[in-house]
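Hi all, long-time lurker, first post. I run a small reading group and we've been trying to get comfortable going from sequence to structure in the token notation. Rather than ask abstract questions, I figured I'd post a concrete chain and ask someone more experienced to write out its structure so we can walk through it together at our next meeting. Sequence below, copied exactly:
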Amino acid sequence: MITAVQIAPNRYRAVYGRYFEDFNVGDVYEHRPGRTITDADNIQFSLLTMNYHPMHCDAAYASKSEFGKLLVSSGLTVAVVLGLTVNDVSAQAVANLGWKDITLTHPVFAGDTLYAESEVLDKRESKSRPKQGIVTVRSSATNQDGAKIMTFERTFLVSKRGHGVGD
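-- Answer (accepted) --
Happy to help. Here is the structure in token form:
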């Protein structure tokens, strides 16, 4: 979520993300824009992470598989989907506390465009940090054809309004 606050006459500053008070259990946030994955993204990520599985970087090998072409590394897919959620869900987060139940439900290929959404599952005030709260969301992603490619749950510590780093 991108909003702006007035900081002087005729001057505004962008504010990204939601504060603890902005989350409501059951709300669903559609994250836009989407992100189109390229062959270069896949190869660079595979090299960066030293994941040299031939299904990610050897087109001749991958052409003999059931998919007939390179698969995008699932690590890259998770990272991109997570990134799609940040501006809206966790830009005011202090820390990620954990991920669970990551499911990969459909292959991703170069040229696919990914879209994400997040549903608020839970929120509670922090017992040890009175200026922060804990939020859990379930994020899911689809490709350009509407096929669900992934889901995961993420819990994070988020600032209350007026107590963020940029406040």
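A couple of things your group might point at:
The domain at 2-159 is CATH 3.10.129.10 (Thiol Ester Dehydrase; Chain A).
The mean pLDDT is 94.
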